[in-house]
Amino acid sequence: MRELDSIDDRILRELCGDARISNVRLADRIGLSPSACLRRVQDLERQGIVAGYRARISRKLLGRSFVAYMMVGLSSQKTAAHKAFERAVRATREVVECHNVTGNFEYLLRVEVSDLDSYKHFHTEVLGSLPDVTTITTYVVMASPKDERE
Cβ-count burial of 107 within 10 angstroms (0-12 exposed, 13-18 middle, 19+ buried)? Predict the structure, then answer.
């Protein structure tokens, strides 16, 4: 894989801000000819650096503006317990990110729901009912001064 240069960095920044930008407009913003810009974008795609394009969704308009991060501890470190937990989490609509992490907990979850009552239901009835879950610590997001996904 080749080293990325400042032009590649600028292309990636622009694409992260607006993945639907036309090649002509992207080239203009970067300071390249449209053909050179297109070659660079295609090269970034071929290398897998640009792995795909996705829509940015308004959580607020979907009624999912209550966001919390949850640290989850399991009672067992066996592979079966981890696989069962991950399977259960993949099946939930509320969990939009699940990360297996190091430290005092096994998992970090990003949960998006409509309100505190919905969160309480998820915490108690969904996550709290999983067999190997022993610890849940929640951090409610009050504001996101920087979130590059939005």
Answer: buried
Task: Report residue 63 as tokens.
Answer: 């009624």
Q: Mean pLDDT for each consecutive 10-residue tract of the chain (150 residues)?
A: 87 92 96 96 95 86 93 96 97 96 96 97 96 96 85
The CATH class, in words, for 59-140 is alpha beta
Token duo for residue 143: 């504001």
Domain ranges, ordered by start, for the chain: 6-46, 59-140
Q: What is the pLDDT of residue 1?
A: 59
The CATH topology of domain 6-46 is Arc Repressor Mutant, subunit A (1.10.10)
115 three-class SS: coil
Q: Amino acid letter at 101?
A: V
Q: What is the pLDDT at residue 150?
A: 65
Tokens 């996101």 — which residue? Answer: 144
Which residues neighbour 128 within 8 Å (Cβ) at sequence distance 6 or greater? 136
Return the amino acid letter for 69: Y
